[in-house]
Write a structure and sequence with these properties.
The protein is mainly alpha-helical. It has helices at about 5-35, 35-60, 70-90, 90-120, 125-145, 150-185.
């Protein structure tokens, strides 16, 4: 009985953070829907900065040593990532087309992963929300691909926003179900 309480406290803490993260997803999604052009530009800039940061990390890891081949590989990877990131940062509007197509692929794959996860966890609480989210992701991914490239400037922000809202709702339902389960187990 004494180990049950710390586990329940940890589960309660985990579900609290899970619910807060779900709410953050919903808020960010609503912002992206309200301001799709800003959200699309933000995605392009975020990807650019992530590439630059990844390149810098490759440069830093060259100091770990490991032989000439490894150092040259790290330097080349760092150069490619930094140059790609700088290009995206300098030309964010021009890169929205490629990012939109890549986003379509990512959301389609996320939808497939959610559906696979549903079949593995369908006996769990709120798993129907996971299936719903997976199907929605497939539909959104297909919508992005079908409108590409003409609607890239607004579609990426709007569809990312819708995806974030529904992902947040699905995660919120799972978090609430987890919270109820913890309450039921601890009495």
């Amino acid at each position: 009985m004494s180990t049950e309480r710390p586990i329940a406290d940890q589960a309660k803490r985990y579900t609290t953070w899970y619910i807060l993260a779900a709410i953050l997803f919903i808020v960010l999604g609503v912002f992206a829907i309200v301001e799709p052009a800003v959200a699309g530009l933000g995605v392009a800039l975020l990807v650019g900065w992530l590439l630059v940061f990844g390149g810098v990390l490759h440069f830093i890891s060259t100091f770990d040593g490991g032989g000439t081949r490894r150092v040259i590989g790290q330097l080349l990877a760092g150069i490619v990532l930094v140059l790609g990131g700088i290009y995206l940062l300098m030309n964010p509007l021009l890169t929205l087309g490629s990012l939109t197509l890549m986003l379509a692929a990512v959301i389609l794959l996320a939808g497939v992963a959610e559906i696979i996860f549903y079949f593995r966890a369908r006996a769990e609480f709120a798993s129907g929300w996971i299936l719903f989210n997976g199907i929605l992701a497939l539909i959104l991914g297909l919508m992005i691909a079908a409108g590409w490239p003409s609607s890239s400037a607004w579609a990426i922000g709007t569809l990312v926003g819708v995806y974030l809202v529904f992902t947040g709702i699905a995660r919120l339902m799972v978090g609430v179900a987890g919270r109820r389960l913890v309450k039921r187990v601890t009495g």
